[in-house]
């Protein structure tokens, strides 16, 4: 007879559907243009801020790099960030000036670089009165990644905010915190932040579980 | 927003999902972190909120792969292959429907060939088939696609590795925390247990969560077979006690 209290899951609690890699052809489903498919009426893509968006317009670029030091050319990324006032805009609406959600992908044409066109997010106030430093949550999908990786991009020019951010400082190793800092450079149309994601080995990016 | 901050989801069981490093699936070797994940004991608004796609404009055939692609728009012609309906519900771990959430899917054609610049497999492209679909779940969490059954295809992993017939499925769920990409396999396919990607899962019950079942009751006479595939996303816990901090 089954021992009571020995069930790993309480009665009636289902297991989550298991994850599988998005695979090399993820673009057919989530990045049609890169697969070579015609666009549909609207696509979810990398221009999160339109011309009317409030705040500092920035370009965010980077590469995903594997354990051999090679660029992952089939990576797909999703971004989730607050607007310039530190507010999330959950309603996805391409007619709105700003969307909190975006997608991008590394492309062979761009030598494996991905890009978001957005605004710099504001600090996000938490209910307990603390503030999280400006950040962009990123989800990384690719062939060879069995379950997507969650990370956060922080800004190197936000030292004070970063020093006070409860999540940034929840990373025990100060050395590893540095892997989440995007570097500011001058872009073609204003500031550009560069954020390389290292999947494995030296300088391995911090990935979160939550 | 503070209601959202009080949300809690059933923690993701990392032993249930595939590990990052699964040497049998060779590409994972160099693409898997070696460091442990950093656990957020208290997830924040950034993890507990997520996009609502009810205002994303979709076309009338976005969920109908029999009609949503023609290589030459002047010519008609249905895709080659077994006509099927793939349908099911998105529910959470407590069986609660997840309404109005975005479900996206992509797949190979009946010959096992993807319409993708990078797919060079011998099997031909089908001029009547693109291979992408999307829809929102309804009030009860139901979604539905009409398509053709994809073919299995060979891929470079072991000397002779074949993917079982599968449809890639992406679901957002209520928050960034529930985001999930998986694949639906077809009940009874002898290639399922042979596949190195399926074998990234350690528990046969976890594999079973990805197997679509033949749903004869919803099949259409003289038209198409139906496959049922429910997606379970992380359950939202009730918060009975408020923490003081
Ligand atoms: Fe596939």
TrEMBL record, chain A:
Intradiol ring-cleavage dioxygenases domain segment(s): 47-201
InterPro entries: Intradiol_dOase_C (IPR000627), Intradiol_dOase_core (IPR015889), Intradiol_RC_Dioxygenase (IPR050770), Protocat_dOase_a (IPR012786)
Top-level taxon in the UniProt lineage: Bacteria
Keyword Cytoplasm: no
GO molecular function terms attached to this record: ferric iron binding; protocatechuate 3,4-dioxygenase activity
Pfam families from the UniProt entry: Dioxygenase_C
Oxidoreductase is among the record's keywords: yes
Keyword annotations from UniProtKB, A to Z: Dioxygenase, Oxidoreductase
Similarity field: Belongs to the intradiol ring-cleavage dioxygenase family.
PANTHER family, sorted: DIOXYGENASE, PUTATIVE (AFU_ORTHOLOGUE AFUA_2G02910)-RELATED, PROTOCATECHUATE 3,4-DIOXYGENASE ALPHA CHAIN
The protein's name: Protocatechuate 3,4-dioxygenase, alpha subunit
UniProt source species: Kushneria avicenniae
From TrEMBL, chain B:
Biased composition (Basic and acidic residues): 1-16
A matching Pfam family: PCDO_beta_N
Presence of keyword Repeat: no
Gene3D superfamilies (UniProt xref): Aromatic compound dioxygenase (2.60.130.10)
GO BP, one annotated term: 3,4-dihydroxybenzoate catabolic process
Domain of life: Bacteria
Domain Intradiol ring-cleavage dioxygenases as annotated: residue spans: 86-114
UniProt keyword terms in alphabetical order: Dioxygenase, Oxidoreductase
Start and end residues of each stretch annotated as Disordered: 1-37
Molecular function GO terms recorded: ferric iron binding; protocatechuate 3,4-dioxygenase activity
Family recorded in the similarity comment: Belongs to the intradiol ring-cleavage dioxygenase family.
PANTHER family: DIOXYGENASE, PUTATIVE (AFU_ORTHOLOGUE AFUA_2G02910)-RELATED, INTRADIOL RING-CLEAVAGE DIOXYGENASES DOMAIN-CONTAINING PROTEIN
Designated name of the protein: Protocatechuate 3,4-dioxygenase, beta subunit
């Amino acid at each position: 007879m089954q021992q009571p209290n020995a069930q790993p899951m309480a009665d009636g609690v289902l297991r989550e559907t298991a994850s599988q890699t998005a695979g090399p052809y993820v673009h057919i489903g989530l990045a049609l243009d890169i697969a070579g498919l015609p666009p549909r009426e609207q696509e979810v893509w990398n221009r999160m801020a339109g011309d009317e968006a409030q705040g500092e317009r920035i370009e965010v670029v980077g590469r995903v790099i594997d354990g051999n030091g090679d660029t992952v050319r089939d990576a797909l990324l999703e971004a989730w960030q607050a607007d310039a006032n530190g507010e999330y805009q959950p309603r996805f609406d391409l007619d709105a000036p700003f969307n909190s959600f975006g997608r991008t992908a590394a492309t062979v044409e761009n030598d494996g670089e991905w890009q978001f066109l957005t605004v710099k997010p504001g600090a996000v106030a938490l209910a307990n009165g603390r503030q999280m430093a400006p950040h962009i949550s990123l989800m990384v999908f690719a062939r060879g990644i069995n379950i997507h990786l969650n990370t956060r991009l922080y800004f190197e020019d936000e030292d004070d905010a970063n020093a006070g951010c409860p999540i940034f400082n929840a990373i025990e190793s100060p050395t590893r915190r540095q892997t989440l800092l995007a570097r500011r450079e001058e872009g073609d149309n204003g500031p550009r932040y560069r954020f390389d994601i290292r999947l494995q080995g030296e300088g391995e990016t911090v990935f979160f579980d939550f | 927003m503070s209601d959202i901050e009080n949300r809690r989801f059933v923690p993701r069981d990392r032993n249930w999902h595939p590990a990052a490093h699964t040497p049998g699936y060779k590409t994972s070797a160099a693409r898997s972190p070696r460091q442990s994940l950093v656990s957020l004991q208290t997830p924040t608004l950034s993890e507990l909120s997520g996009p609502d796609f009810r205002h994303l404009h979709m076309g009338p055939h976005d969920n109908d792969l029999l009609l949503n692609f023609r290589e030459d728009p002047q010519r008609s012609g249905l895709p080659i292959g077994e006509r099927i309906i793939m349908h099911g519900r998105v529910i959470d771990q407590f069986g609660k429907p997840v309404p109005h959430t975005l479900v996206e899917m992509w797949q190979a054609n009946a010959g096992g060939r993807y319409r993708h610049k990078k797919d060079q497999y011998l099997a031909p492209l089908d001029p009547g088939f693109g291979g992408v679909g999307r829809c929102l779940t309804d009030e009860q969490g139901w979604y539905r696609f009409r398509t053709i059954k994809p073919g299995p295809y060979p891929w470079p992993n072991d000397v002779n590795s074949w993917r079982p017939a599968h449809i890639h499925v992406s679901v957002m769920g209520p928050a960034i925390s529930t985001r999930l990409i998986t694949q639906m396999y077809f009940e009874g396919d002898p290639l399922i247990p042979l596949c190195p990607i399926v074998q990234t899962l350690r528990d046969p019950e976890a594999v079973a969560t990805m197997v679509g079942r033949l749903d004869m009751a919803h099949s259409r006479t003289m038209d198409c077979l139906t496959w049922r595939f429910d997606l379970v996303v992380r359950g939202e816990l009730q918060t009975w006690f408020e923490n003081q901090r």
